[in-house]
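Figure 6 in text form: structure in, sequence out.
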C-alpha cells in the first residue's frame, strides 16, 4: 500500500484552523500510525511523497505512488472551504471499480470515527477536477482522503486532532477489508 503524504515540504498545503499544522506536516507526523497498523495486519506499507520524485504537483504524487509498486495508493489531506461547511469526503477515479470499493470502505470508517457529516464519495473525471493528474497517472486504484475540513472548520479541526489515532487504525482496517473482499 502506498501511503502518500499530500502536498510537500515546499508548499505545505492548507493550514489547520488552530494554525498548528499544514496538511503536509500533520500527515508527516501521523501517517506512521496507518503504516504501523497495516504492517501489524501483514501488509507492506510504503510512505511516500511527491517531493521525493522531484516535484510538487499531483503528477509527481502519482509518480511517487507508482514507484512503490503498490496495489493501492492512498493520499492523505485535510480540506478547506470558504463556506463554513464541514465533513468527511473521499475522492477516487470515476471508473475505477477497485478505487470505488476502497473509497466506500474508508469513507465509512472515517465517518464512524470522526462523527462528522458524511459528504460522500467524489468522483474525478475531468481535467478541472481536484487532483486530476494524480488519478489519471496512478497505475493502481487510488484515493485521496479528506477526513475533515480542518483548515476552515474549528470542530472538524478539533475532531481530527483528538481522534487521529483511532482514525489511522480505522483507515488501515478498512484497507485490510478492501484486500480481503
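Output sequence:
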Amino acid at each position: 500500500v502506498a501511503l502518500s503524504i499530500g502536498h510537500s515540504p515546499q508548499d505545505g498545503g492548507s493550514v489547520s484552523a488552530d494554525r498548528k499544522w499544514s496538511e503536509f506536516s500533520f500527515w508527516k507526523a501521523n501517517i506512521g500510525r496507518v503504516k504501523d497498523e497495516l504492517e501489524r495486519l501483514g501488509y507492506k506499507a510504503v510512505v511516500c511523497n511527491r517531493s521525493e520524485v522531484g516535484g510538487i504537483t499531483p503528477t509527481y504524487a502519482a509518480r511517487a505512488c507508482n514507484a512503490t509498486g503498490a496495489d493501492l495508493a492512498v493520499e492523505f489531506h485535510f480540506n478547506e472551504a470558504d463556506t463554513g461547511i464541514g465533513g468527511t469526503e473521499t475522492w477516487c477515479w470515476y471508473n475505477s471499480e477497485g478505487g470505488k470499493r476502497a473509497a466506500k470502505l474508508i469513507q465509512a470508517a472515517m465517518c464512524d470515527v470522526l462523527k462528522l457529516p458524511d459528504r460522500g464519495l467524489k468522483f474525478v473525471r475531468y481535467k478541472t477536477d481536484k487532483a486530476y493528474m494524480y488519478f489519471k497517472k496512478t497505475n493502481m486504484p487510488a484515493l485521496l482522503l479528506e477526513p475533515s475540513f480542518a483548515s476552515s472548520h474549528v470542530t472538524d479541526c478539533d475532531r481530527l486532532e483528538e481522534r487521529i489515532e483511532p482514525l489511522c487504525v480505522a483507515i488501515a482496517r478498512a484497507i485490510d477489508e478492501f484486500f480481503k473482499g
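Caption detail: The chain has a mean pLDDT of 97.
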